[in-house]
Structure formats: C-alpha cells, structure tokens
Specification:
By secondary structure, this protein is α/β, with parallel strands linked by helices. It is 35% helix and 13% strand. It has helices at 10-13, 44-54, 63-70, 76-88, 124-136, 185-192, 195-198, 239-245, 251-266, 290-309, 330-336, 340-353, and strands spanning 14-17, 22-23, 32-33, 102-106, 172-176, 202-207, 228-234, 273-282, 317-321.
Length: 357
C-alpha cells in the first residue's frame, strides 16, 4: 500500500459523524447522507471511497490533504498513516474489517464563542448573533463569512441521539464541536464503550479551552478508565490577538485552564496518561504575529513535554491556514488586508459581535 501515490488509511478504519444522518470517512471530507442507517460502516458511499483509493485514485473529497502536502505541511492523511503504522505495523490487515477502529464524533454546534474563523454551522453563538442581526437589518450578511440565506432554521442541537455503532474494534474516539465539553453526548459515548475495552482506547478532544477540567471532580473521573485522553486546544494566537480571533474568550482564563491540563500531562500514572496539543490557524488577522504565538505556546507547554516523552514537537503543535486561504503566503495575506473586502468583513465582524453594546 505504501507505494501508492495517495493511499490513506482513514476510510478503512475511521467513521466520522459530523451532521445527523450523514457519514464521512474523516472529518475533512464533505460527506454524504447515509442510505444505510442500520449499518453505517458498510454504507455505499464509504465503500465507494475505499474502492477509489484501492484503485489508486484521489477522491475529490481529499483536496484538503492534497493542498496541505503541496505546501510541505503535515496533512491529516500523512499523520494518520504514520500513527497507524506505528501502532499496527502494516495497512493490509485493516483493509477488510467489519467495524471501525476510530470514531470522529461532532457533538453539534453548541459553542460559547464566535471565532473569526468559524461560522453558524459550527457555533450556536454565531447563529444567535446572525439571527439577531438579520432581524435588526443593521448589517449586510452577504459580506460576512457567515452568510446564510435562511435564518429561520434553528441549527443549534446537542445530538443526544447516539447512532448505533459497533465498538468492538474501537481504538480511538475524537470529539469535535461546537465545543464538545459543553455537552453531555461525549460522556454518553464514553459510557457506551465496554469497560473491558476502555483501557485500549485513546480519547481526543478538540476544545476551545474555556472549560476547566479538574480531575479531582467526579464528573471527569471516567477519563482515568481510558488508555489516554488528549486535549487539542484551538488557540490561533495569544493575549489580545487570541481574544480578537476567539471572541469572547479571555486569554488569562484559557491559559490557566491549559496550565492545569499540562500539569496532568507532565505527571506519570500507572494505567493511563494524559496528552495535549494545540491547533493554530493562520488568518488575515493574525498572520503578522502568528510565528510569535507559535513560539510562545511551544516554550510554555511543549518543550517540557517533548523532553519528558522523548518525542517530536510536530506531534503537539499543528499549524495551518484558514480553509478560505489554504494556499496563501504571508505576502498574499498582506495584500488582502489592503482590500475593501477585508475592511468590510472586519467591520461586519465587529458589528455582529457588538450588537448588545
């Protein structure tokens, strides 16, 4: 398999559920409505993606990884392939199986932030701001990245109805949102994993860092039943830039929450361990201070972790461009900030956020 031009292990071992009644081979795919709800794993759409990859074709849905690799960045495909080989030694044994090894589960769009890089489909806060602005008529929503033609549809949901999934092969579960730690659905899924299986399962969260995790609180004690729990913190900046991009989060509070989790990661436990990483997205607003922010988070949290785990920094600090500007250089960002479009989008962003002032 390794001699193929674009082999990816994800469709053969992973199931992603990001929208109710839809399935995805991974969280970067566009996905499709399921036509086989009683057996999601063998849905025709997923089987077609697998066949294309085995035939050495690059599915159209895989362009996000194609673009990342074109610019020399570590893609989801490359990272997943490496992790799978490190854990299992080969790809061939996973080509034919009857249940997923990995689950990407999106808990809905319930979120307490309105980040400049996000939109109403992934943030209930953005949905509320847009609905209010639509009624007030004080901003032209066509000139926001959140433009939607029908705001009568309430997109806020918690996705408490967990789909029927066979967990017998499960090795890792990845929770996304919204903000997954604000919901109960992630706890429901963890409790569905057979207790004898949990010690072999990695759990990963993409979180905005606003929810403080205190392992002395009984609420979080289930984490200790799994092989590891990894918090991937979405930051995109520090201090003032963080608070602009990830509004209305407060940098000092989020930094304190990450400090606490980092202490768990630095400690040693008998039957489990904790892990952390950061995901930082470069945008027209933060590109000038992006490298300084990456250095800050590296020095504060990951230099020590790399030394303790005898690992590499690229396993913990992930950087990419905003999907709307995936291939852009800093020079292109600079030119874009001089445009009327950028000025108008920034102005509207601030109007939407400050409607109550």
């Amino acid at each position: 398999m390794q001699d193929r031009k674009f082999f990816c292990i994800e469709p053969f071992v992973s199931l992603s559920i990001a929208i109710e009644d839809h399935i995805f081979p991974c969280c970067l795919h566009e996905g499709q409505k399921s036509t086989q709800k009683d057996d999601l794993w063998n849905d025709p759409y997923l089987k077609n993606i697998r066949e294309k990859i085995l035939n050495d074709e690059i599915p159209n849905e895989c362009q996000a990884c194609v673009e990342q690799e074109k610019f020399g960045r570590l893609s989801r495909r490359q990272h997943s392939n490496k992790v799978w080989l490190d854990e299992h030694g080969n790809f061939e044994d996973a080509i034919e199986n009857d249940a997923p090894y990995k689950l990407d589960f999106w808990t809905g769009n319930l979120c307490n932030l309105a980040c400049s890089t996000c939109n109403y489909t992934n943030s209930s806060t953005w949905f509320a701001l847009l609905k209010k602005a639509s009624k007030a008529g004080n901003v032209d929503l066509r000139f926001t990245r959140n433009y939607v033609s029908n705001l009568d549809y309430n997109f806020e949901f918690k996705k408490e109805d967990i789909p029927d999934i066979d967990f017998k092969n499960m090795e890792s579960i990845h929770f996304n949102g919204g903000e997954p730690l604000l919901t109960d659905s992630h706890f429901k899924i963890l409790n569905l994993i057979p207790k004898e299986r949990r010690k072999d399962v990695y759990v990963i969260y993409n979180t905005n860092g606003t929810v403080r995790i205190d392992l002395e609180d009984e609420k979080w004690s289930i984490f200790k039943e799994f092989r590891s729990v990894d918090m991937t913190f979405s930051l995109d900046g520090i201090e003032e830039m963080f608070e602009f991009v990830r509004w209305p989060a407060k940098w000092e509070e989020v930094q304190s929450n990450i400090d606490l989790w980092a202490e768990y990661c630095y400690s040693e436990y008998d039957n489990y361990f904790f892990q952390m990483s950061v995901n930082m997205v470069k945008t027209p607003h933060n590109f000038k201070v992006f490298d300084d922010a990456v250095k800050y988070v590296t020095d504060r949290w990951f230099t020590k972790l790399v030394a303790l785990r005898k690992s590499n920094l690229n396993e913990y600090v992930f950087t990419t461009n905003d999907h709307s500007f995936m291939c852009w250089t800093d020079e292109q960002f600079e030119e874009y900030t001089k445009t009327e479009e950028f000025d108008l989008q920034t102005k509207n962003l601030l109007i939407l956020r400050n409607q109550d002032k």
